[in-house]
TrEMBL record:
Name of the protein: Methyltransferase family protein
Record carries keyword Methyltransferase: yes
InterPro entries according to UniProt: Methyltransf_25, SAM-dependent_MTases_sf
Originating organism: Kribbella orskensis
Molecular function GO terms recorded: methyltransferase activity
Length: 222
């Protein structure tokens, strides 16, 4: 399986691209429950800039921008980002939302310690190896300012799809051409190594059971 990850990633990118080309509102226009919760958290923490990874067509990026955040949204589907830019323009939010093509298996573009917060809704449970996940969270920690927050959501092993999709090895499952992983708390804790884990909360958003995880980049010890 490990040697197949490059091909798997490429196939998934095509799969997502096609899905977004076929549907200009694949995940709907309403923000996710996680985005609403995250806007409150980031606002209370005095954060004003958010890097969103796996932003799709931007339902959450646009919501966060409407709440006053400056959002840089990335995804590996150009079709999704095209829709995001159109919607941002339509809503007069293009001064607060930028969008760029980026595959999160590559290093993140921002310089060290320059980002206030990172947000990723239902991205980390996509077709990544555990090594790719560890390297992604290390990259996120690198770009965050000390004290900066990372909120992500992932499908949990409580999801009713867990065990029902076809297992393709290395903890990954496939359904309708999409590949993903279901997270247990051990994996959440593994990815919080060298972070301050602020919370791992289970919730449901039809039809999925998910974890919403909040972690902070620790301040350097003086
Ligand atoms: C379940 S969708 C969630 C989209 C968006 N966060 C939302 O909630 O509407 C997962 C997103 O992750 C993106 N994605 C998957 N693998 C990726 C990768 N390696 N790099 C960047 N984006 C990726 C897909 O294109 C898709 O937009």
């Amino acid at each position: 399986m490990k040697t197949g990850y490059v091909e798997l990633g490429r196939a998934q990118q095509e799969r997502w691209q096609t899905a977004y080309e076929q549907n200009p509102s694949l995940h709907g226009a309403e923000p996710s429950a996680a985005a609403r919760w995250t806007a409150e958290l980031f606002g209370a923490a005095g954060i004003d800039d958010v890097l969103e990874l796996g932003a799709g067509q931007g339902r959450d990026a646009l919501y966060l921008a409407r709440q006053g955040f400056s959002v840089h949204a990335t995804d590996f589907s150009e079709a999704a980002l095209h829709q995001l830019r159109l919607d941002a323009q339509r809503d007069g939010l293009d001064d607060r939302v930028t969008a760029a093509l980026h595959d999160v298996r590559d290093p993140l573009p921002p310089a060290d310690a320059t980002v206030g917060a990172v947000y990723a809704n239902v991205l980390l449970n996509m077709a990544f190896s555990r090594a790719e996940l560890r390297s992604l969270v290390n990259e996120i920690r690198r770009v965050l300012r000390p004290g900066g927050l990372f909120v992500y959501t992932v499908w949990s092993t409580e999801d009713r799809g867990y065990g029902k999709c076809s297992a393709i090895g290395d903890g990954l499952y496939a359904k309708d051409g999409f590949v993903g992983r279901f997270f247990d708390l051990d994996l959440v804790h593994e990815l919080a190594d060298r972070w301050e884990l602020r919370g791992a909360d289970g919730y449901t958003e039809d039809p999925h059971a998910l974890w919403r995880v909040t972690q902070a980049k620790p301040h350097p010890v003086s």
